[in-house]
Design brief:
Number of domains: 2
Shape: globular
CATH class of the largest domain: Alpha Beta
Largest sheet: 5 strands, mixed
Radius of gyration: 21 Å
Strand content: 5-15%
CATH superfamily of the largest domain: ATPase, nucleotide binding domain
Distance between the termini: 41 Å
Strand order of the largest sheet: 7-6-5-8-9
């Protein structure tokens, strides 16, 4: 199947609501209940979402953690404390549908490559900043790169290069300890906020300490991106989630910082772009994962029909 941009509009989601999650619990008991909170999964069986004759044929799910593709978490989402949970099987049981599961940043990379900021580009590095940290996805020769076990793209777990000791806030920490959504929230005096609220607070603040924190995070992020440029020579780096906020009014500054620390030949053609699919990017990626099996073998999803002899009876 061709890995380049597809000549079709982006998929539409049936519905998307995010319920509050209080505390953590074992997924084996809590996941079906949470799915019922999010949307009526049982009623998806045979539902016709958009056109006459259409029915739900598969589900796609994304989760903020490292996943052996489609099976269980080996590095669980920190805020859920799940360990080796058979996510795909649990979702399939809750929905009654064939289910695809993948890391949210990997699916975000797919969505931005097919429909967003990296559409038409075959070499892309994608980093997503969320509440649980920084994840990443890679597009190489137009195809997502997942690694031998599905764990590729964990940029947030790399040790950051910090030129100035004054910039270091988490000794012995990793990139996502230094470049952090929670640190941005504290800088603007918030305990929690969705992305639009946080972005607005950052962009309208005239507090020098807020500017200092965004500049600090931008410098550390630039070094991490420069390392990616030297290794992968991408055409574009796409930043999603709170990382996109660090480009607001400062894309040229961030690009200059990255190029100053990269090999000139590798950085010559690279663009740094904010993700454009907003909150939909992860849902779109999950929809692509759900469609993958259908597109690979569409005949296998056709309903069984009686043969000539059975019809004659």
């Amino acid at each position: 199947m061709h890995g380049g941009p597809r000549n079709r509009d982006r998929p539409r989601s049936l519905s998307a609501r995010r319920p509050p999650v209080a505390g953590s619990s074992a997924p084996n008991s809590s996941l079906p209940a949470r799915l019922r909170l999010s949307w009526p999964t049982r009623s998806l069986r045979g539902r016709r979402p958009h056109s006459q004759g259409a029915a739900s044929s598969a589900s796609g799910s994304r989760f903020p953690g490292s996943s052996a593709r489609g099976t269980a978490w080996c590095a669980p989402p920190p805020h859920l404390e799940w360990h080796d949970a058979p996510i795909r099987e649990l979702v399939a049981d809750a929905t009654g549908l064939p289910t695809a599961v993948d890391n949210d940043a990997t699916l975000g990379a797919v969505a931005e490559h097919l429909y967003g900021a990296a559409r038409g580009l075959d070499h892309v590095v994608y980093l997503n900043g969320g509440a649980s940290g920084i994840g990443g996805g890679l597009i190489v020769h137009g195809m997502p790169v997942r690694g031998v076990s599905g764990y590729a793209g964990e940029f947030g777990q790399n040790r950051p290069g910090i030129a100035s000791t004054a910039d270091q806030q988490a000794p012995e920490g990793v990139l996502e300890d230094e470049v952090s959504r929670s640190r941005l929230l504290r800088a603007v005096g918030l305990t929690s906020a969705d992305d639009p609220t946080l972005a607005a607070a950052l962009s309208t603040s005239d507090d020098p300490s807020v500017a200092a924190e965004t500049d600090r995070q931008r410098r550390i992020l630039a070094t991490a991106l420069a390392n990616a440029v030297n290794v992968l020579n991408p055409r574009a780096i796409v930043l999603g989630g709170f990382l996109a906020m660090l480009t607001e009014g400062a894309t040229d500054q961030l690009t200059d910082l990255v190029r100053a620390q990269s090999m000139p030949a590798n950085a010559e053609d690279v663009d740094i772009r904010a993700a454009v699919q907003a909150d939909d990017r992860l849902l779109i990626g999950a929809a692509e994962a759900a469609f993958a099996g259908l597109l690979a073998d569409p005949l296998s999803r056709l309903p069984e029909r009686p043969g000539p002899l059975e019809e004659a009876r």
